[in-house]
Every structure is written in C-alpha cells, then in structure tokens.
Amino acid sequence: MVLGVSGGIAAYKACELLRRLTESGHDVRVVPTASALHFVGEATWSALSGHPVSTEVWTDVHEVAHVRIGQAADLVVVAPATADTLAKAAHGLAGDLLTNTLLTARCPVVFAPAMHTEMWEHPATRENVATLRRRGAVVIEPAVGRLTGVDTGKGRLPDPGEIFEVCRRVLAAGRAAGARRDLAGRHVVVSAGGTREPLDPVRFLGNRSSGKQGYALARAAVARGARVTLVSANSALPDPAGADVVRVGTAMQLREAMLKAAPDADVVVMAAAVADFRPATYATGKIKKRDGQEPEPIALVRNPDILAELSAERARPGQLVVGFAAETDDVVPNGRAKLARKGCDLLVVNEVGEHKTFGAEENEAVVLGADGSETPVPYGPKEALAETVWDLVARALPPATDA
Q1: Arithmetic mean of pLDDT, 55-70
Q2: Is 154 known to sit in a ligand binding site?
Q3: Which residues form the DNA/pantothenate metabolism flavoprotein C-terminal domain (predicted)?
C-alpha cells in the first residue's frame, strides 16, 4: 500500500492511519510531499513504515521509483489530501513523487481531503473532486468540526480509524471477482440508531438500537463510490468517513431530516429503529414519585410512518426505498405483510430480542423484494449484510443519467 501525505496540519493524524495499516499486516510505503515534511519529518515516516522516505523523483533513479511505486501498489490512499494535491491529481500534473505515483497507479485510489471550508467549497475544488470521482477515485467527504485556529466547519480530516475502514473495504472490493464501484455518482440516504421520545427532562421512551447496522450500510456505500447522507438517531458511534452526518433525537426530527434529504437521493434506506409511539404530553418538570400513590398512566400517540411516507411520495423517478423490520416471531410472514403495507422495494427482516441484533456486531436477516424475491443472509458481521443490501440495490437501480 502507498500512503500519500500532503502538506496540511492534519498530516500528524496520518501517523495513526499508518499505524493501523501496518498493524493490520499491510506493507506501507509513505510518499509525502515536500510541504508535508514541514509538519511531520522524514524520520517519523521511515520509523513507522520501515521504509525509506523521499519526496523527489530523483532519489534512487536506477529503481525508477516514480513509476514502480504506483505500479506495485494494491491501494493508494492520500491523507490528508489538500486542495493543491486534489488539483494536481485531477489535472494529471507530475511534479513530485506523489503525483507521479498517482499517475502510474492502476489500483484503487482513496483521497481523504482536509482543508478550510472555503477551500473545500470553492468551485475549482468541487470540480476537481467531481473529475476524480468520475475517473473512479474514492474522494471521502471531509468531516465537520474544529479546523486550524478558531475556525470551525466542513473540511476536517475524518477520524483515522474511519479512513482505515474505507481503505479496508475498498481494498477488499478491489480483490473481489468482478467487483466495481457500482454506486459511483449515486446519492444514498441512510437512517441509523434509535429514536427517543422524551417523557420529562430526564426520561424518555426508547429502544436498544445502537446504529451499528446503519453505520455499516453508510461505510459500505462510501467504499462503493456513493455520496452518503447518514441521519443518525442517538448513536454514540464515530462518524463514518465520507458520510455527511445529520444528528436527530426524536421520530419527528428523524422524519424531518429524511424528508429533507430524500428529494436528491437515488436510494433511501430506513435502518433506524423508530418509536411507533410518543407521549401525548411532555412534563416540563421531572415526574415525581410520591409516597403511597401510583403514577398517573402515560397516554401515547402514534408517530408518523416514515418508511411508508417515503415510499408513497418518492421525490424522483427510479428512486429505491429500502426498509428494515424487527420481528420477534413469524419473521418472514410478518415481513411480507409489512412490505406490502409500507410500499418499499426491499425490506430487510431480522429477528430481534434482548440478546439478538440490537447492539451486537453480527446480524442474520432475510431481504424480501417487492418482486417476490427472498435473499437469506446467514449469521455474520453486519457489514456482510450491508454489502448484500447494496448488491441488491445496485442491480435494481436504473442506469445513471448525467444531471
């Protein structure tokens, strides 16, 4: 693997990414730009990777390093990728060892941008990103947060652990027979987690959902080239690298966020566990326990059926809607009935319980199709279920059209 590092303050975070890559068994060659060495020195990269480090094409000329490094790579990841590096890559410039490596690489390439918000939003940068994505590169959306100085906004390097997950998935997909970036150019919206309906300032009605399945779907979609919007309800998981994360709490907030994001989406996936009911009234003060008195009954009202609403009011032709159903018995028959009621294209049905699915790393499900199809997914990692869902979605999507 090749880790390209360009000249931004986030270069120090690439040390953590390098550690994760080497500890997972990969042989990593670090190729920094000259500017990157102002932030992290050559000795650090050499010590962490176990390889000599150079920025120049003139080093070890007899080995033709400016060609050989890219030719031999299984994956190239550039983290951080500055606006300057993205521009050079998009225009095929080859002024140093990193840009030469990018030109000669015939393997998957991942860019993890990091820059100030104004630079990321500039039309030139946006066009360069679009060009790289059209050519098949994975350009991760930057995170939102604290930048250099007092600035805050979109442009922060995603968490190194999440960049590692993208690299792992891209590398695995590249090795799979017939694998392709079949969601490139698509926008997918995924909900995850569990809604909470407040009773009073300290209590709520909720469920056991951790958000792990929805986050696995988001990560897999990023690795397959999609632009991903993740609507996250009360999940403590780190933001998936490359996904735009919208945080919500209640079912009504989740509904608002999904309806706002859906009009621009090719695929909408409702993986969140949404409360069917909410308290009819909200107590502005903590509900007190009074000696000798039983509590007042809590009246509930029904929440909107977000999945059915998204299915019935599709914002664009050919949009696919995928739902999730948690069942405790008669899993497939109940799932078939729910699929008909909701009107979605695919319904992922799994059996849940106190020690099943919720909060676990594994899942087992059946994916039911509106066409009568039935795809069982055996017990295994939630990311395996995510890949199966996207396989089915990719086959069902109409051909992409240029906007």
Answers
A1: 60
A2: no
A3: 183-395
Farthest-apart Cα atoms in the chain, separation: 89
Among 113, 144, 175, which residue terminates a domain? Answer: 175
Per-residue pLDDT of 291-314, as tens digits, reads 888 888 899 999 999 999 999 988
Lowest mean pLDDT among 47-51, 169-173, 246-250, 272-276: 169-173
Q: Confirm or deny that 307 is annotated as ligand binding.
A: yes
pTM over 0.85: no
Question: In a 3-state reduction of DSSP, which class is residue 322?
Answer: strand
Q: What is the pLDDT of residues 138-177, one digit of tens each?
A: 899 898 888 877 788 898 999 999 999 989 888 877 655 4
Q: Please tell me whether 164 is known to bind a ligand.
A: no
Structural domains of the chain, count: 2
Place of tokens 């107590």: 283
The residue from 175, 210, 231 where one domain ends is 175
Q: Please check if 142 is assigned to a binding site.
A: no
Q: Does residue 169 share a domain with residue 219?
A: no
Q: Identify the active-site residue in 100, 207, 303, 350.
A: 207
Q: Do residues 246 and 294 lie in contact, with contact meaning Cβ atoms separated by under 8 Å?
A: no
Cβ pair 3, 171 in contact under 8 A: no
Is 207 known to be catalytic? yes
In this structure, the answer to whether residues 217 and 117 fall within a common structural domain is: no
For residue 271, the enclosing domain spans 187-286+293-396
Q: d(Cα 188, Cα 171) in Å, to the nearest integer? A: 21
CATH number, domain with residue 97: 3.40.50.1950
